[in-house]
């Protein structure tokens, strides 16, 4: 997360998914241009789509986990039709549900989100398995020009959590203010 | 107003409200409205795989400064319940336009269980309800819903009764 968000620029808007990716984004930030999710499981990618369509001159990165993405897998089909050039969906895949006690997710048993995204019509799908591929993803995110999906394979671990602001209305107002939208 | 042009009045209301994104799961009752939205270059029509995606889409649109609307039939409301927590927790404006099934001349009994609990579900989810039973009630209901939703960042549903949509639509 820190590697992806380093020197991010004011034009990068981030929607981290419920769970570890929200804690990780908070640890790398906090940033008013992140919309941290404490709920809405399965909704991160669609929030990113609505935001990307509304802000075509900014880059939008949805950064979520495998469990959260599995719950909203249909949204990959929806995004595959819309394909906004400024949207990246990045899944940190550790094969477990970290928030609930490390139970195995479907991806551990062979469900391949990278192939799902490709089959849904997302043209650029990156399989990120090492530091070089991560650096490539970070560079592509900086110069985002087409809808991008990336699966980043990570190790299952349970580090101490960094918790962001929890008031949803405050997060929303803060985000809108940060990108210059009047209340 | 003739019986058949209420979808056009509804579309005009959405345009006056500056709705820029319309999420929908295809629905016979909404077919004309969907066609109008698809034909409008200033509206992004987003076909969804399930209605809850539209709740999240509308939240993202508002984060980015645009207004969205979500079209569905009554069965779709059940698919939205948990995702409505997003709108409730964050005070996202959410405009839903819902065509009713299972309440009048319904040929499919499987539509009845969800149709029968639309009103209590909306109440429990803190959504204001604006119901239109007759064609000349549609535009007014939609105007009031728009005002409630975007005037104060709230949730509202325009309910289009099955009587309004008519039986023959379902027998084509």
Structural class of chain B: alpha/beta
Flag low-confidence runs of chain A: none
- Count of folded domains of chain A: 1
State the separation between the terminal residues of chain B, measured CA to CA.
24 Å
**SSE succession of chain B:** HEHEHEHHEHHEHEH
Any idea of the CATH topology of chain B? Rossmann fold
Largest sheet of chain B: 6 strands, parallel
Major protein interface: A-B, 36 and 32 residues
State the strand order across the main sheet of chain B: 2-1-3-4-6-5
Fraction of residues in β-strands of chain B: 15-25%
CATH topology of chain A: Rossmann fold
Q: Report mean pLDDT of chain B, rounded to a whole number.
A: 94
Describe this structure in words.
The complex is a heterodimer of chains A (183) and B (172). Chain A has 183 residues and is of the alpha/beta class. In chain A, 38% of the residues lie in helices and 19% in strands. Chain A has one domain (2-178): 3-Layer(aba) Sandwich (Rossmann fold). Chain A has helices at residues 2-5, 20-28, 44-54, 66-71, 74-82, 113-119, 131-142, 168-178; strands spanning 12-16, 59-65, 87-93, 96-97, 103-104, 124-128, 148-153. In chain A, the strands form two sheets. In chain A, strands 1-2-3-7-6 form a five-stranded parallel β-sheet, with helices on both faces. In chain A, strands 4-5 form a two-stranded antiparallel sheet. The longest helix of chain A is centred in the last third of the chain and has 12 residues, at 131-142. The model of chain A has no long low-confidence stretch (mean pLDDT 96). Chain B has a single domain (6-171), classed as 3-Layer(aba) Sandwich (Rossmann fold). Chain B has 172 residues and is an alpha/beta fold. Helices cover 45% and strands 20% of the residues of chain B. The longest helix of chain B is centred in the C-terminal third of the chain and has 15 residues, at 138-152. The model of chain B has no long low-confidence stretch (mean pLDDT 94). A six-stranded parallel β-sheet of chain B has the order 2-1-3-4-6-5, with helices on both faces. Chain B has helices at residues 6-16, 31-39, 51-63, 74-80, 84-90, 112-115, 118-124, 138-152, 162-165; strands spanning 19-24, 44-47, 67-73, 94-99, 127-132, 155-160. The interface between A and B is medium-sized, with 36 and 32 residues.
